[in-house]
Amino acid sequence: MDPLVRPAKPEPRPLQHGVKAPVLPIDFLILDVYKELGRLRDSGKMSAALEAVASFEKARRLYVIMKEGKLDGNSLLSLSGLNPKDFDDNLEKLKFILKKV
């Protein structure tokens, strides 16, 4: 009788991680950074990329998070601990640093 009196609590939905189809401009920027990371990983230049971003603390923080795996913009923002303006600026900085490597 207890299940009839107390309805079961709905299961919380799991967090959605992973990059889906880009919608916002920041999504395109995130995909560009992941493409550059893939290019560097394939060519074996990940250590050179780390050296290139070492002097930029916030860009380095994003690099460390993004090299582990693909995440969506909201997850990246929350894991980085940056405010949205710094997040956008340093994501763009990271993209251009990685292009130079």
What attributes does this structure have?
101 residues, mainly alpha, 67% helix
Explain what you see.
By secondary structure, the chain is mainly α. It has helices at 2-5, 25-43, 46-53, 57-68, 73-80, 84-100. It starts with a helix and ends with a helix.
Layout of SSEs?
Blueprint: H1 2-5, H2 25-43, H3 46-53, H4 57-68, H5 73-80, H6 84-100
Helix pairs in contact: 2-6, 4-6
What is the overall pLDDT average? 85
Question: Radius of gyration, rounded?
Answer: 18 Å
Question: Beta-sheet strand percentage?
Answer: under 5%
Q: How are helices and strands ordered from N to C?
A: HHHHHH
Can you tell me the residue ranges where pLDDT is under 50 for at least 5 consecutive residues? none
Helical content, roughly?
55-70%
How many E strands?
A: 0
Q: Mind summarizing the main beta sheet?
A: none
The number of helical segments is: 6
